[in-house]
What we know:
The complex is a heterodimer.
Chain A lengths: L1 H24 L19 H13 L27 H4 L9 H10 L22 H13 L8 H9 L3 H9 L7 H7 L22 H4 L2 H9 L20 H4 L2 H12 L3
Helix pairs in contact in A: 2-5, 4-5, 8-12, 10-12
Chain B lengths: L1 H27 L18 H36 L2 H35 L1 H34 L7 H33 L16 H5 L4 H29 L4 H39 L1 H8 L4 H25 L10 H18 L9 H7 L7 H5 L1 H24 L2 E2 L5 H25 L5 H29 L4 E2 L10 H27 L4 E3 L3 E2 L10 H29 L12
Antiparallel strand pairs in B: 1-2, 3-4
Helix pairs in contact in B: 1-3, 1-4, 2-3, 2-5, 2-7, 2-18, 3-4, 3-18, 4-5, 5-7, 7-8, 7-17, 8-9, 10-11, 10-14, 10-17, 11-14, 14-15, 14-16, 15-16, 17-18
Amino acid sequence: MWGTNLRILGVVLGTVAVYTLLANAIPQVESEVPEELSFTGDVSPEQLIEAGEELFNGAGGCTACHGLGTRAPNLLTAQGSAGPIGARCAQRVEGEDCKTYLHRSLVEPGAYVVEGFQPIMPDASRTMSGAQIWSLVAFLESQGGEVTVTAADLQAADAGGEAGAAAGAAAGPSATTDPAELIRELQCVACHKLGAEGQEVGPPFDGIGSRLSAEEIRAAILDPAASIAPGYEQFAGVMPPNFGSRLTAAQLEAIVAFLAARK
Amino acid sequence: MSGRRLGMAASCLASLALVLVAVHVAGAQEPAVAGPRAYGSFPWIGSRTAVWIAAEVHLMFAAFVLGVPMFAVVAEGIGIFGGDERYDRLSKEFTRLLLIAYSATAMWGAVLVFFLTTLYPRFWAHMTEIFEVSMWIYVGLFFIESFTLYLYYYGWDRWKKGRAKIGHWTLGILLNVWGTAVLFIADSWLTYMMSPPANVGPDTSPAMVQFWSAFANATWMPINIHRLIANVVFGGSVVAAYAGYRFLSARTDQERAHYDWMGYVGNFIAIGALIVLPFAGYYLGREIYEYNQQMGITMMGGFMSWLWIIQAFLIGVLFLAGNYYLWVGMGRIPGAERFLPYTKWMLLVLIIGVIVWSTPHTMIADRAELEAMGGSHHPFLGVLGVMSAKNTAVNLMILTTFLSFLLYRRANRRPVVSWARTGTILQAGLFVIAAVVVLFYGVYGYFVSAIVRIGFSVYQVLAVLATIVGVVALDVAMLRGSESRGEIRWGQMPPRSQYALFVLVVTFTWLMGLMGFARSGIRQHWHVWEVMRDTSEWAATPALGYAAQVISVCVIIFLGLIAFIFWLGGLVEKPQLVPERGEH
């Protein structure tokens, strides 16, 4: 009897031991926590680049997509005919210099979607502080370009609390209530087709009034996750959920009325 | 007898009271005023590991006490409607195993809640504020569930005949209803941590979170389904190991026959449910991707990518051990000799399958490594490591295992219907078609884009499922009224086969711990994903090596306790379950 018991114990512990050893024999990858950065006023570009590089390769999670070639554009190496990110960033959006473009790529990834890729890039302001985001921008700039991030950017980000606020101020909507202008300003056309204009990531605006009522359109803007347009399920969660807080009531109603009238 | 019954009820009540108190303490905290401290600290192993172990062991017990009633009630049903007394006794013996396991579940639940309230007070306050009502309902249901179980078990011999028996069976069904409700409620809490509704952010006050949207969040249903099935697998494997133990320590042939049969049934349940589990896994994975691409990518390709290799290895062990048990078991079936030559080919398919399946695909690599490999895919391993190859391997392994069961079933029968030959050829044809479809799409997958390829896995799965359904239907019709080539000689099983059952239970338990780590690890440094940050010293998600050690500790605690519980059960009650004549 004791022999049997010991044999059973041996099988059980042996199996557990094999699994434990196996799991310890493979490469050990820990998922780190993004380190909170606190820079003083006279932070040097090198410090920023270093912090950014660490985030990029580690806790920032960027390498899960970038660097594999197919899922997201290469950043550290050339992408197609364009050079590495620091060299190509200024040519992406007309009127946007490299720094602005990179910052927006991180905090408003849906605003400009690189051709040939899906808009899956996460919004960094949800997980990172202003200083962390700016250090990433500095690191990316250093890849083939010149670093222009300064202490002033960091301070502005701190003052604005969230990093998004800094970008929001730059890209925030004006006081206009002209719906067509708002739609362009808010970059709805980055994802919706309006006439010949825009990209088709989400459903086109033309004819939207015949599919949805004004209430449904309002709901779709305020809470995009609440109901997903049929056929666009794979892009659920792509549409920014924050328009409700970025638009005034009058602006929102103007857009709703404008879209509802596009039968 | 009644003294023991009281004692048991009392211990269970006591542990329930603990849970109640703990939940109450948690609810009483007022986060708005000053706020509770963020974290407590636990000596030596640290807070995170303390909560981890408490949660995991609680979950293992819970999975056991939720899984077993499901097939206990099915077995009782077979007993009632099929008129086979054996199944009724089997069902009662399953249920007996549940009794003490219930109090263990409640005790570990109390440990977990106390650890959460003392070690993660701020996080727990957040959870209780959103979920308080569901927590009250939860404990209420737990009461009702426990008492239903007591009635079910202790009423077994009283309500044995006629209408009373049906009433008794209804109790068993109710037991499952309560159990499932309890599971679904608990799932809502942990899935909320993974996939909170999109409109909840770091600044949202918990009071403003809509209960239902937090409750029925994106990953809730997939986790529910995944766990329901996994619980059956788990329960079956624990029961099989119990039977294996009793088989090895049996003194009479009758006992041996009974426990051999019980082990077979437990193993059948475990492997049968295991075959559908991957589909639930795909569903869950897809929902995670849909909820948040980054989370999906972290899970499959990010810092967790190695985890899936270990998982594939473990599942490979499950397939091998499960099939080995069946093949050895053919030795006790007259007529099975004619199938034995096939087993070596099946073994070959399984081994190749395991190897392909556990080949790494996309690994995290730094830039130097990427350059060295000329891309993120290893030039040789990359070919085997992609989804196409893996899906093909898994589907072929499932087909092979199914074939093992089929041969087992067929072994001692001689069909009498006139079309038996045609039927067998038809069955073989179905197998061949499924294998060809699986292989065709596996190879074709290399020539198309990823998006198209993902669609292929659906065809592969459908082909396998259709074959399983078709072949079983043919088999049932074909064996109607079949002649026997001789009774299965239950009990005449070489002892070595029983050790396969122990390997199976350890592997299932370990796998459950591993998947638990994966599920909660993908949140990374968030208590609630992108809503509540983990700012404790334990925020970083550990590497697999450390995780494996914790998992092993949990497995040993669980199996140690369950062995003790079974031993206790054996002390008080010499089961009158062993039937008079041999099992067949």
